[in-house]
Amino acid sequence: MSKNVGDTYGTSRFNPADPPAEAPYEPHESALGITSSAYAANMAKLIARLSVR
Predict the structure, then answer these.
(1) Do the Cβ atoms of 37 and 15 come closer than 8 Å?
(2) Burial of 5 by CB count in 10 Å (0-12 exposed, 13-18 middle, 19+ buried)?
(3) If you write DSSP's letter for every residue of 1-53 in order, what string do you get?
(4) Which of 36, 44, 13, 50 is nearest to 2 (CA)?
(5) Taking a C-beta distance cutoff of 8 angstroms, is the pair 20, 2 a contact?
(6) Residues ≥6 apart with Cβ < 8 Å to 28
(7) Model's pTM, two decimal places?
(8) What is the tens place of the pLDDT at every residue in 14-32?
(9) Distances from the Cα of 48 to the Cα of 11, 31, 34, 35, 39, angstroms
């Protein structure tokens, strides 16, 4: 049985640092992203900067 670590939907309950031993698992890099709190903070900075003008 495969662990399905690193699958397209990221629903595995296993640690990605411990990939399954059997094929067809192919490791890949994690997608770059931003947290919602970082997005909100950046938007607040942007709005504050735009409102100064």
Answers:
(1) no
(2) middle
(3) ----TT-TT---SS-TTS--SSTT----PPPP---HHHHHHHHHHHHHHHHH-
(4) 13
(5) yes
(6) 6
(7) 0.42
(8) 666 666 666 666 767 777 8
(9) 38, 30, 20, 20, 14
